[in-house]
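Consider the tokenized backbone below.
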């Protein structure tokens, strides 16, 4: 997809690491709870696998050690513990630049759509609090909506469907390699914002069409990318 082929109507936003500076807490929580259950999983891996569903994340560690997927009850227990630990951390702040970008998106009459692999109620509730009136429930795709999580294109294809737009009428804003792969596989122009500790090259290799060092940088360049008609 070329930038000039886009007739922008909707912007599909990932949540963690894009709208909230929440990834360091997720990484800490994953590393600690996996360790609690005898599974080896580093903070760095949490960033590399960011965007996968809870079950898929747990199974990466479990498969490596045991050669098969974890039992469903264990997955449920680990994910519940991880979510509980995450909820004890300080409230993640809004990602600098994100509120300003959402304002621009709204003011331009574009549809903001949330596309997250998260199934954590605390964060989804926080969204309504920190970004009031931006994302309507019918324009949200969460872990509860999809069968296949990122890097499968399903979440972003569902985002297009919910917004009632085609791939060339949308862009994806993502911070994680897995999420970039999902946006790219859905045939959508995918903008990567490197808000974490990974090398930006990883995001380009995942298929990012553009790479920005922060949400603030993307916000500042937005009108150059998508001039208001
Ligand atoms: Ca993310």
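A designed sequence for it:
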């Amino acid at each position: 997809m070329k930038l000039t082929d886009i007739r922008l109507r909707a912007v599909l936003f990932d949540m963690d690491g894009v709208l909230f500076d929440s990834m360091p807490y997720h990484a800490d929580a994953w590393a600690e709870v996996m360790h609690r259950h005898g599974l080896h999983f580093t903070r760095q891996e949490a960033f590399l696998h960011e965007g996968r569903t809870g079950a898929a994340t747990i199974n990466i560690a479990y498969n490596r050690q045991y050669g098969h997927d974890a039992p469903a009850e264990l997955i449920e227990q680990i994910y519940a513990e991880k979510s509980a630990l995450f909820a004890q951390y300080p409230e993640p702040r809004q990602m600098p630049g994100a509120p300003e970008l959402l304002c621009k998106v709204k003011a331009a009459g574009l549809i903001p759509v949330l596309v997250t692999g998260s199934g954590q109620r605390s964060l989804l509730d926080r969204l309504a609090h920190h970004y009031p009136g931006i994302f309507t429930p019918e324009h949200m795709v969460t872990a509860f909506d999809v069968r296949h999580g990122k890097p499968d294109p399903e979440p972003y294809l569902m985002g297009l469907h919910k917004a009632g737009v085609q791939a060339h009428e949308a862009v994806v804003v993502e911070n994680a390699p897995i999420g970039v792969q999902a946006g790219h596989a859905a045939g959508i122009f995918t903008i990567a914002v490197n808000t974490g500790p990974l090398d930006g090259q990883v995001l380009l290799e995942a298929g990012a069409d553009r790479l920005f060092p922060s949400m603030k940088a993307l916000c500042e360049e937005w009108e150059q990318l998508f001039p208001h008609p």
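Residues 14, 16-18, 50-51, 175-176, 179 surround calcium ion (CB under 6 Å).
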